[in-house]
Design a protein that fits this description.
Structural class: alpha+beta
Strand content: 5-15%
Largest sheet: 5 strands, mixed
């Protein structure tokens, strides 16, 4: 007795939609017959005798079982990738301690503490009077709340489950946890483009890419910690909707976009690159209803949700960063209307209707463009933010907004930084782009557009290397997956032997060819029935073409790329070696380059490891030796840390929302001592904090940042001129420095008593020279604290009355001398 599938029997249809594989399986209808022959159509199609598959112990596993086992294996691999992504970011905790890194994370940590202690409503209405004195800052309306709300929710859930972790611990480990989520989202996105193999490869690459590690190590509690996951997941849902045309996924895509808006200002990258891809699909003739479903709900629902975020508000519809999405929204509706009319009208009527639709569409577009031009023209920056204009014009910030250009992460990257941050992925990306063109789909075209745009933006601003990293990992994963497929296929082809190879190929292609033949036979049988009713030459020709197509298709499927066995083995070895080099570099970057917290510095020398904990030493002194209401002035880099760790009021901080206030502090630092005292005294400042690295060789000190203080101050107060601080266009602090430089407050506060550290030489280890003005005294400021390694120095403003009393005493002594002289010479 043979087992024969009926006409509606086991049929698995594999359908490629945008690079994603979806499988549909129907129920098996089994028929028992008395023959071992499978006769589908006795007139034209017969198959060879087939023994009962159920009794063959050597038969390959069924496709359903193979698919299920593959999913289970992929699940466990993804778990291991998540563990890898989390653990590789723990070097900072293992080597140092569980501490918040950098500057901005301290503000986020302080805000999270306030949220957990006071609740969500007080958070939205929180007016912080300890920052930007005397202006203050409304926190709820000026911060992206996604990171804070996420960490606060995690802390609430953990305490509900009786896991008593501190707020600081939750904040420290938020970034490593979301890096695992980002790796899984990368798998989902790449799987939609080129399959599960490429997805797993891309996920493991993202888990270790140094560019992402630099912003997601344990303790890096910044917006990017959750924003990169939101970015990748939003792109995945967009591609998923594009492949399936599901309104459910379109709604999830809008919600993911809303979370991205809550998390990071880089959401404008999403709302611009997706319209660009939609426009690209329309121009290249790839419009479909799936494209409309993927885009239209995102614009409508996503914009409405984005407007709910206080820091965004009406900017979601009023700024130029969002106008491209609205313009493409109009275009896709015009195109959709044209396709709809084309489907219900005759060709002649369609031409008339198309002329009308195009005319109305042009009028609407012109009206919208006119409105946009009017709105844009009314803004001094043409509706663009300063950071957006800096991306479009890399020279804009240096010309008009020095506060943006002064940030190191806003500078263009160097070529070595690409090798440092993405390593060998830079060489694999071109191969991935080529692989995306074979075949080109909507999903693969989006990935190509993503890598092109991210390469441009990363070349403008080094911070956006973080956006480039996922795109590089996706394309590198696709390239490696395709390469491994070719290499392993070639080795297996030659290892199996010629006769066994033929049998394996026949057995492996049997199910696919049988299924495709069943589908074609069903179509042919239906056509034959129609031929019996209405025989014609045209129908016979179509039948002949349909019969010949499967054979041609099977011939093309039997020609995979096979390399010589020695070439395949060598290429596979080199690929594994390349991957090993990438792993070694990534682990080194995670352990050495990006694990050190900026607040605790270390250095190695011949006598061992040295730890510099001067920052926390200085903040602890401020916290214990100053009044709660005392105001502390420093450059804006240290504002967040001073407020969070010392709990003291600062004049400016890292939010940089008020350029005039920052320029006032820069002007004070650039002015002579007396003028600086008057500026600080008008702001009720009691202490001034400066960071100095000349003794230990710390390069990120205030002397190296001083020219930016001059530029920012001179942008608001014209009497501060940068050439006054340069000698022949060169910035110097030695004996050839200008008098304006040597008499500035920053120079004096940094080098006061510096000659006492090395026997009177005053050698600066950062600038590698002896200072110009070595011996001087302070008349309006007094030193109150200097840390162990002289990295942080704190000065106190002298009271006004003492200074006046001293002047009065000197004036009286002078008047007495003049009075006595007048008595000697009354005629004078």
């Amino acid at each position: 007795m043979g087992i024969i599938p009926a006409m509606g029997g086991p049929m698995i249809e594999q359908r490629r939609t945008g690079g994603g594989a979806m499988y549909k399986s129907s129920l098996c209808l089994l028929q028992l017959t008395d023959s071992n022959d499978i006769s589908i159509n006795p007139k034209k199609h017969t198959l060879k005798p087939l023994m009962a598959a159920s009794t063959d112990s050597t038969a390959p596993p069924s496709p359903i079982l193979r698919h299920a086992s593959g999913n289970i294996l992929a699940f466990f691999i993804l778990l291991l990738i998540g563990v890898l992504a989390f653990s590789i970011r723990l070097f900072s905790v293992i080597k140092y301690e569980s501490v918040i890194h950098e500057f901005d994370p301290y503000f986020n940590y302080r805000v999270t503490q306030f949220l957990i202690k006071n609740g969500i409503y007080d958070f939205w209405n929180w007016f912080d009077d300890r920052t930007w004195y005397p202006l203050g800052r409304v926190i709820g309306g000026t911060v992206y709340p996604g990171l804070t709300l996420t960490a606060g929710m995690m802390w609430k859930v953990l305490h509900f489950l009786n896991v008593p972790l501190s707020v600081e611990t939750v904040c420290v480990f938020t970034a490593p946890l979301f890096s695992a989520f980002a790796a899984w989202a990368t798998y989902l996105l790449t799987k939609e483009v080129k399959g599960a193999g490429a997805g797993l490869t891309a996920a493991v690459l993202l888990a270790m890419v140094p560019s992402y590690i630099s912003r997601s190590v344990a303790g890096s509690y910044d917006n990017e910690a959750v924003a990169i996951f939101a970015l990748i997941f939003t792109f995945y849902l967009y591609i998923k909707t594009l492949n399936t045309g599901s309104l459910f996924y379109a709604t999830l895509n809008s919600i993911a976009y809303f979370y991205m808006v809550c998390s990071w200002g880089g959401y404008t990258f999403i709302i611009n690159i997706i319209p660009m891809h939609v426009l690209l699909c329309i121009v290249t003739g790839r419009y479909s209803s799936r494209l409309y479903i993927a885009y239209a709900p995102l614009v409508v629902l996503g914009t409405l949700l984005a407007a709910l975020v206080p820091v965004v508000g009406f900017n979601a519809v009023m700024t130029s960063e969002h106008f491209a999405s609205f313009l493409v929204f109009i275009i896709i509706h015009v195109v959709a209307l044209a396709y709809y009319i084309k489907g219900i009208l005759s060709p002649k009527m369609f031409k008339v209707a198309a002329t009308l639709v195009v005319s109305v569409g042009l009028v609407l577009c012109c009206a919208v463009v006119a409105i946009l031009i009017a709105v844009v023209a009314s803004s001094p920056t043409k509706g663009w933010s300063g950071r957006s204009l800096s991306l479009l014009d890399p020279t804009y910030a240096s010309k008009y907004i020095p506060i943006i250009a002064s940030v190191s992460e806003h500078q263009p990257p160097t070529w070595p930084s690409y090798f440092m941050d993405i390593n060998v992925l830079a060489f694999l990306v071109p191969a991935g782009i080529i692989a995306c063109f074979s075949p080109l789909s909507d999903a693969s075209s989006f990935v190509i557009l993503y890598i092109v745009m991210s390469v441009y933006f990363s070349g403008v601003m080094v911070r956006l290397m973080l956006v480039l990293a996922p795109a590089a990992c996706i394309l590198s994963g696709i390239a490696l997956s395709e390469a491994f497929d070719v290499f392993t296929r070639s080795i297996k082809f030659y290892a199996s032997g010629t006769s066994e190879k033929v049998q394996n190929e026949a057995g492996g292609a049997a199910s696919a060819s049988t299924l495709s033949m069943q589908n074609n036979v069903m179509a042919t049988d239906k056509k034959e029935d129609s031929l019996k009713e209405r025989p014609s030459k045209k129908n016979k020709k179509e039948e002949k073409e349909n019969v010949e197509k499967p054979s041609l298709k099977s011939q093309t499927e039997k020609r995979p790329l096979v390399l010589p066995v020695d070439t395949a083995v060598l290429a596979l070895f080199l690929t594994v070696l390349l991957g090993a080099f990438y792993v070694i570099h990534s682990v080194w970057a995670a352990a050495e380059a990006y694990s050190a917290p900026s607040i605790v510095l270390t250095t190695h020398s011949h006598d061992g490891l040295h730890v510099f904990d001067d920052f926390r030493e200085a903040y602890a002194w401020l916290s214990h030796n100053t009044e709660v209401d005392d105001k502390v002035a420093s450059w804006w880099d240290y504002g967040y840390q001073t407020t969070a760790m010392a709990n003291r009021t600062v004049i400016v901080d890292n939010n940089t929302w008020n350029n005039t206030h920052i320029a006032t502090v820069g002007t004070a630092m650039s002015s002579p001592e007396k003028a600086a005292w008057e500026i600080f005294n008008s702001l009720d400042v009691k202490y001034v904090l400066v960071v100095f690295g000349g003794l230990v060789g710390y390069p990120s000190d205030d002397i190296n940042k001083f020219l930016w203080m001059v530029r920012i101050g001179g942008g608001v107060f014209p009497h501060i001129k940068e050439p006054d601080y340069l000698r022949d266009g060169e910035y110097r602090i030695d004996s050839k420095a200008t008098p304006t430089m040597l008499n500035s407050l920053m120079y004096k506060l940094s080098y006061f008593r510096f000659v006492e550290t090395d026997g009177g030489k005053g050698y600066d280890r950062v600038r590698r020279t002896e200072i110009g003005k070595k011996h001087f005294k302070l008349t309006h400021f007094e030193e109150v604290f200097t840390t162990q390694h002289w990295m942080v120095r704190i000065y106190k403003l002298k009271p006004e009355r003492n200074r006046i009393r001293g002047k009065t005493k000197k004036y009286r002594s002078k008047s007495r001398r003049t009075g006595s002289s007048m008595k000697k010479n009354p005629w004078h």
